[in-house]
Amino acid sequence: MIKQALIVLFFICITTVCNYAQSPSHQIWDGLLKEHVKANGFVDYSGIRENIKLLNSYLDILSDSPPEATWTRDEKMAYWINAYNAFTIKLVVGHYPVQSIKEIKRGIPFINTVWDIKFIKLGGQDYDLNKIEHGILRKEFQDARVHAAVNCASYSCPPLRGEAFTADRLEEQLEDAMRSFVNDPMRNNISGEKAELSAIFKWFSGDFKSDAGTVIDFINRYAAYSITSSTTISYLEYDWSLNDAAATPRSPLTE
Fold it and tell me: pTM for the full model?
Protein backbone atom coordinates (compact mmCIF):
# COMPACT_ATOMS: atom_id res chain seq x y z
CA MET A 1 0.00 0.00 0.00
CA ILE A 2 2.82 2.37 0.93
CA LYS A 3 4.70 1.41 -2.22
CA GLN A 4 1.67 2.20 -4.39
CA ALA A 5 1.19 5.55 -2.64
CA LEU A 6 4.83 6.44 -3.26
CA ILE A 7 4.49 5.55 -6.93
CA VAL A 8 1.40 7.76 -7.26
CA LEU A 9 3.18 10.60 -5.46
CA PHE A 10 6.18 10.20 -7.76
CA PHE A 11 4.05 10.55 -10.89
CA ILE A 12 2.22 13.56 -9.41
CA CYS A 13 5.55 15.27 -8.79
CA ILE A 14 6.80 14.45 -12.28
CA THR A 15 3.58 15.75 -13.84
CA THR A 16 3.78 18.95 -11.81
CA VAL A 17 7.36 19.61 -12.89
CA CYS A 18 6.57 18.90 -16.53
CA ASN A 19 3.54 21.19 -16.47
CA TYR A 20 5.43 24.06 -14.85
CA ALA A 21 6.67 26.38 -17.58
CA GLN A 22 9.35 28.75 -16.41
CA SER A 23 9.18 32.37 -17.48
CA PRO A 24 11.61 33.14 -20.31
CA SER A 25 14.98 34.77 -19.89
CA HIS A 26 15.12 38.46 -20.81
CA GLN A 27 18.90 38.43 -21.14
CA ILE A 28 18.97 39.12 -24.89
CA TRP A 29 16.67 42.11 -24.48
CA ASP A 30 18.73 43.33 -21.54
CA GLY A 31 21.88 43.25 -23.66
CA LEU A 32 20.24 45.16 -26.52
CA LEU A 33 19.00 47.85 -24.15
CA LYS A 34 22.36 48.26 -22.47
CA GLU A 35 24.03 48.67 -25.84
CA HIS A 36 21.53 50.85 -27.67
CA VAL A 37 19.70 52.99 -25.07
CA LYS A 38 21.49 56.18 -24.09
CA ALA A 39 21.67 57.60 -20.58
CA ASN A 40 18.79 59.99 -21.39
CA GLY A 41 16.57 57.13 -22.54
CA PHE A 42 16.86 57.95 -26.23
CA VAL A 43 17.31 55.00 -28.58
CA ASP A 44 19.92 54.16 -31.19
CA TYR A 45 17.46 52.78 -33.72
CA SER A 46 20.11 52.44 -36.43
CA GLY A 47 22.18 50.27 -34.12
CA ILE A 48 19.22 48.07 -33.25
CA ARG A 49 18.40 47.72 -36.93
CA GLU A 50 21.89 46.31 -37.43
CA ASN A 51 21.14 43.82 -34.64
CA ILE A 52 17.64 42.99 -35.87
CA LYS A 53 18.31 39.24 -35.84
CA LEU A 54 19.09 39.44 -32.14
CA LEU A 55 15.90 41.42 -31.46
CA ASN A 56 13.87 38.95 -33.51
CA SER A 57 15.33 36.03 -31.56
CA TYR A 58 14.14 37.62 -28.32
CA LEU A 59 10.68 38.28 -29.75
CA ASP A 60 10.55 34.63 -30.84
CA ILE A 61 11.30 33.62 -27.24
CA LEU A 62 8.41 35.77 -26.03
CA SER A 63 6.12 34.38 -28.72
CA ASP A 64 6.94 30.80 -27.75
CA SER A 65 6.65 31.42 -24.01
CA PRO A 66 3.41 33.25 -23.14
CA PRO A 67 2.57 33.67 -19.45
CA GLU A 68 1.35 30.59 -17.62
CA ALA A 69 -0.91 30.34 -14.58
CA THR A 70 2.04 28.96 -12.62
CA TRP A 71 4.08 32.15 -13.07
CA THR A 72 4.27 34.68 -10.26
CA ARG A 73 2.62 38.07 -10.61
CA ASP A 74 6.01 39.74 -11.02
CA GLU A 75 7.07 37.26 -13.71
CA LYS A 76 3.91 38.02 -15.67
CA MET A 77 4.19 41.79 -15.27
CA ALA A 78 7.87 41.86 -16.26
CA TYR A 79 7.03 39.75 -19.32
CA TRP A 80 4.29 42.11 -20.53
CA ILE A 81 6.32 45.28 -19.91
CA ASN A 82 9.26 43.88 -21.84
CA ALA A 83 6.97 42.62 -24.59
CA TYR A 84 5.39 46.05 -24.99
CA ASN A 85 8.73 47.83 -25.16
CA ALA A 86 10.45 45.28 -27.39
CA PHE A 87 7.62 45.09 -29.92
CA THR A 88 7.42 48.91 -29.97
CA ILE A 89 11.10 49.00 -30.91
CA LYS A 90 10.49 46.34 -33.54
CA LEU A 91 7.66 48.39 -35.04
CA VAL A 92 9.74 51.56 -35.22
CA VAL A 93 12.84 49.84 -36.59
CA GLY A 94 10.74 48.25 -39.32
CA HIS A 95 9.73 51.71 -40.57
CA TYR A 96 12.82 53.69 -39.62
CA PRO A 97 13.59 56.49 -40.28
CA VAL A 98 10.39 58.21 -39.15
CA GLN A 99 9.84 61.50 -37.36
CA SER A 100 7.18 60.03 -35.08
CA ILE A 101 5.77 56.62 -34.27
CA LYS A 102 2.38 58.06 -35.20
CA GLU A 103 3.46 58.20 -38.86
CA ILE A 104 3.53 54.42 -39.10
CA LYS A 105 -0.25 53.95 -39.32
CA ARG A 106 -0.55 56.08 -42.44
CA GLY A 107 -1.80 54.07 -45.37
CA ILE A 108 -3.04 51.15 -43.25
CA PRO A 109 -6.82 50.81 -43.79
CA PHE A 110 -9.24 50.34 -40.90
CA ILE A 111 -6.57 51.21 -38.31
CA ASN A 112 -7.28 54.08 -35.92
CA THR A 113 -3.78 54.47 -34.51
CA VAL A 114 -0.40 52.78 -34.71
CA TRP A 115 -1.20 51.16 -31.36
CA ASP A 116 -4.10 49.27 -32.98
CA ILE A 117 -1.93 47.41 -35.51
CA LYS A 118 -2.13 43.68 -34.76
CA PHE A 119 1.46 42.73 -35.56
CA ILE A 120 2.25 40.87 -32.33
CA LYS A 121 1.81 37.11 -31.98
CA LEU A 122 2.27 35.54 -28.57
CA GLY A 123 1.36 31.94 -27.89
CA GLY A 124 -0.60 31.77 -31.13
CA GLN A 125 -2.73 34.81 -30.30
CA ASP A 126 -2.64 38.18 -32.06
CA TYR A 127 -2.11 41.35 -30.06
CA ASP A 128 -1.69 45.05 -30.64
CA LEU A 129 0.14 47.45 -28.32
CA ASN A 130 -3.14 48.85 -26.98
CA LYS A 131 -4.23 45.37 -25.88
CA ILE A 132 -0.98 44.82 -23.98
CA GLU A 133 -0.98 48.23 -22.29
CA HIS A 134 -4.67 48.79 -21.55
CA GLY A 135 -6.18 45.32 -21.72
CA ILE A 136 -3.46 43.53 -19.77
CA LEU A 137 -0.97 45.72 -17.92
CA ARG A 138 -3.41 48.37 -16.65
CA LYS A 139 -6.43 46.12 -16.27
CA GLU A 140 -4.87 43.03 -14.70
CA PHE A 141 -2.08 44.50 -12.58
CA GLN A 142 -3.62 47.85 -11.57
CA ASP A 143 -0.25 49.39 -10.75
CA ALA A 144 0.01 53.04 -11.82
CA ARG A 145 3.79 52.80 -11.92
CA VAL A 146 3.48 50.89 -15.18
CA HIS A 147 3.04 54.26 -16.90
CA ALA A 148 6.72 54.95 -16.21
CA ALA A 149 7.77 51.50 -17.39
CA VAL A 150 6.22 51.24 -20.87
CA ASN A 151 7.71 53.44 -23.55
CA CYS A 152 5.80 54.76 -26.57
CA ALA A 153 8.94 55.70 -28.54
CA SER A 154 8.29 59.41 -28.15
CA TYR A 155 10.09 62.34 -26.59
CA SER A 156 7.48 63.05 -23.91
CA CYS A 157 7.15 59.41 -22.88
CA PRO A 158 8.95 58.24 -19.76
CA PRO A 159 12.45 57.24 -20.96
CA LEU A 160 13.05 53.68 -22.08
CA ARG A 161 14.89 51.92 -19.29
CA GLY A 162 18.40 50.79 -20.21
CA GLU A 163 17.81 47.29 -18.89
CA ALA A 164 15.14 44.62 -19.04
CA PHE A 165 12.52 44.39 -16.32
CA THR A 166 12.92 41.19 -14.30
CA ALA A 167 10.73 39.53 -11.70
CA ASP A 168 13.41 39.50 -9.03
CA ARG A 169 13.94 43.28 -9.27
CA LEU A 170 10.56 44.45 -10.48
CA GLU A 171 9.56 46.41 -7.38
CA GLU A 172 12.88 48.25 -7.29
CA GLN A 173 12.73 48.95 -11.03
CA LEU A 174 9.15 50.28 -10.99
CA GLU A 175 9.92 52.57 -8.04
CA ASP A 176 13.04 53.89 -9.72
CA ALA A 177 11.30 54.37 -13.08
CA MET A 178 8.47 56.42 -11.58
CA ARG A 179 10.76 58.48 -9.35
CA SER A 180 13.04 59.25 -12.31
CA PHE A 181 10.07 60.20 -14.50
CA VAL A 182 8.46 62.49 -11.94
CA ASN A 183 11.73 64.32 -11.32
CA ASP A 184 12.83 64.40 -14.96
CA PRO A 185 12.95 68.11 -15.96
CA MET A 186 12.35 67.13 -19.59
CA ARG A 187 8.99 65.51 -18.75
CA ASN A 188 7.82 67.24 -15.55
CA ASN A 189 8.79 70.63 -14.17
CA ILE A 190 7.92 70.75 -10.47
CA SER A 191 8.88 73.47 -8.03
CA GLY A 192 7.33 74.80 -4.85
CA GLU A 193 5.34 77.42 -6.75
CA LYS A 194 4.21 75.62 -9.87
CA ALA A 195 3.98 72.17 -11.37
CA GLU A 196 4.02 71.63 -15.12
CA LEU A 197 3.08 67.97 -15.36
CA SER A 198 3.21 65.35 -18.06
CA ALA A 199 -0.13 64.85 -19.79
CA ILE A 200 0.12 61.21 -18.67
CA PHE A 201 -1.06 62.32 -15.23
CA LYS A 202 -4.16 63.83 -16.86
CA TRP A 203 -4.92 61.07 -19.36
CA PHE A 204 -4.64 58.29 -16.79
CA SER A 205 -5.65 60.21 -13.70
CA GLY A 206 -7.99 57.38 -12.67
CA ASP A 207 -5.05 54.99 -12.32
CA PHE A 208 -3.14 57.37 -10.07
CA LYS A 209 -6.23 58.16 -7.99
CA SER A 210 -6.92 54.45 -7.49
CA ASP A 211 -3.37 54.02 -6.28
CA ALA A 212 -2.97 57.03 -3.99
CA GLY A 213 -6.35 58.76 -3.63
CA THR A 214 -5.40 61.77 -5.75
CA VAL A 215 -2.97 62.44 -8.57
CA ILE A 216 -1.11 64.94 -6.39
CA ASP A 217 -0.72 62.45 -3.55
CA PHE A 218 0.73 59.97 -6.01
CA ILE A 219 3.21 62.47 -7.43
CA ASN A 220 4.25 63.60 -3.95
CA ARG A 221 5.41 60.06 -3.17
CA TYR A 222 8.22 60.60 -5.65
CA ALA A 223 8.71 64.32 -6.27
CA ALA A 224 11.73 66.14 -4.86
CA TYR A 225 9.45 69.16 -4.30
CA SER A 226 6.00 68.53 -2.87
CA ILE A 227 2.95 69.91 -4.62
CA THR A 228 0.71 71.81 -2.21
CA SER A 229 -2.71 73.43 -2.36
CA SER A 230 -1.04 76.69 -3.36
CA THR A 231 0.93 75.17 -6.24
CA THR A 232 -0.20 76.26 -9.70
CA ILE A 233 -0.72 73.11 -11.77
CA SER A 234 -0.73 72.83 -15.55
CA TYR A 235 -0.13 70.08 -18.07
CA LEU A 236 2.53 70.10 -20.76
CA GLU A 237 1.82 69.58 -24.43
CA TYR A 238 2.81 66.06 -25.41
CA ASP A 239 5.65 65.83 -27.90
CA TRP A 240 5.28 62.75 -30.12
CA SER A 241 8.63 63.22 -31.86
CA LEU A 242 10.59 59.97 -32.05
CA ASN A 243 12.95 59.35 -29.14
CA ASP A 244 15.78 58.95 -31.60
CA ALA A 245 19.33 59.21 -30.28
CA ALA A 246 20.37 60.48 -33.72
CA ALA A 247 18.07 63.51 -33.42
CA THR A 248 19.16 66.92 -32.17
CA PRO A 249 19.54 66.80 -28.38
CA ARG A 250 16.75 68.47 -26.38
CA SER A 251 17.13 70.81 -23.45
CA PRO A 252 15.28 70.46 -20.13
CA LEU A 253 12.13 72.51 -19.69
CA THR A 254 12.77 76.02 -18.52
CA GLU A 255 10.68 78.43 -16.55
Answer: 0.90
